[in-house]
Design goal:
Helices cover 49% and strands 12% of the residues. The chain has 14 helices and eight strands. Strands 1, 2, 3, 4, 5, 6, 7 and 8 form an eight-stranded mixed β-sheet that branches. Helix 6 crosses helix 8. The radius of gyration is 21 Å and the shape is globular.
Length: 346
């Protein structure tokens, strides 16, 4: 295995966490204390004209700390994990070339994983096949397709929730296009821990090697904002969704609906909150039902994010809302930069 001392690689910070955990606030605070620049890791914030329901940083927040990879796609476009890896690595290279630290902040755990592990050598999406699978999903239901996947790729089926439409259809698409299970590609990806050549251990730093399929030449400090009380997170989620409605979420989705070129199967429309309002506009249920569905879907999203993070390796957990989080992160970054021999701006 090719190995490189931790201090020979530039530092990158991953700030992960479930929705409504306070990631944006902490990330902005970091930019005001260290030479950092922010990169959004959010599969919904990439879309233009989708501001309220994605909880994009406000104009004031973006003025304080600009975020890259926000508002880069039209809602009619499909933005993949491979697209994100390409764009994020270009942004990281630009930031480090100017002697600054890239801080990647968000809750799309699939994007973080793809960036860390590298993208498997998988075929590009096939529009005709995907349309066929979408039609089958509508006619037969996702459970039926999940059972089909379980028969041909049980490892992938175990890892993919039956309701995770996008991952489920992608797994079936790969099998049909290549004749090989997508889980085989997953198993070819791995990571390695890191230790500085001076013997200093960094338990929350991970170096991903080129021979593990990654082209990410960084030492990554991985941080996760985790709630210490799930009920508090649930209350924050409900309040935030109701605040979104008060700020005009239904009108925002209605404008998308009225475009005429979008449909319920697009990733943009399937974003949490948008999918539920879209269903109301389609006459599937009333306003009160939409509210309950939106809150429940957001809670399910947070649950999936927390499940990812509990299994995540080499991650430093921070308690959401803890006033000492900024000091803790500054200390971790300071330890790394001192070992690196760069004590400026610590």
């Amino acid at each position: 295995m090719v190995t490189t001392a931790a201090q020979d690689l530039p530092l990158a910070v991953f700030l992960m966490g479930p929705t409504a955990s306070g990631k944006t606030d902490l990330a902005i605070e970091l930019t005001e204390r260290l030479p950092c620049e922010l990169i959004s890791v959010d599969s919904a914030m990439v879309y233009r004209s989708m501001d309220i329901g994605t909880a994009k940083p406000s104009a004031e927040e973006l003025a304080r700390a600009p975020h890259r990879l926000i508002d880069i796609c039209d809602p009619a476009e499909v933005y993949s994990a491979a697209d994100f890896c390409r764009d994020a690595q270009a942004a990281m290279a630009d930031i480090t070339a100017r002697g600054r630290i890239p801080v990647l902040v968000g809750g799309t755990m699939m994007y973080f994983k793809a960036l860390l592990n590298g993208m498997a050598d998988l075929p590009a999406a096939d529009p005709a096949l995907r349309a066929e699978l979408e039609a089958r999903a509508r006619q037969q239901g996702l459970t039926s397709l999940h059972e089909e996947l379980a028969a041909i790729d049980p490892v992938a089926a175990q890892a993919i929730h039956p309701n995770n439409r996008q991952r489920l259809l992608r797994a079936l698409e790969v099998v049909i296009l290549t004749g090989k299970p997508i889980s085989a590609a997953w198993q070819s990806q791995s990571g390695a821990g890191v230790q500085a050549s001076n013997g200093v251990d960094f338990p929350y730093l991970t170096q991903w090697q080129a021979d593990a399929g990654s082209s990410l030449p960084y030492t990554v400090l991985q941080l996760a904002l985790m709630p210490d009380d799930r009920s508090v997170l649930h209350r924050r989620i409900e309040q935030r969704f109701r605040d979104m409605l008060a700020r005009g979420l239904c009108d925002e989705v209605k404008r998308l609906w009225q475009r005429g070129d979008l449909n319920a199967d697009l990733p943009s429309v399937r974003c949490v909150g948008y999918r539920q309002v879209w269903g109301m506009l389609a006459g599937e249920y009333d306003f009160d039902t939409m509210v309950q569905k939106g809150i429940a879907a957001t809670r399910q999203l947070a649950k999936r994010q927390l499940t990812w993070l509990r299994k995540w390796e080499n991650v430093h957990h921070l308690t959401s809302g803890d006033p000492g989080n900024l000091a803790a992160v500054l200390e971790l970054i300071g330890q790394y930069r001192k070992a690196q021999g760069n004590i400026e701006n610590v």
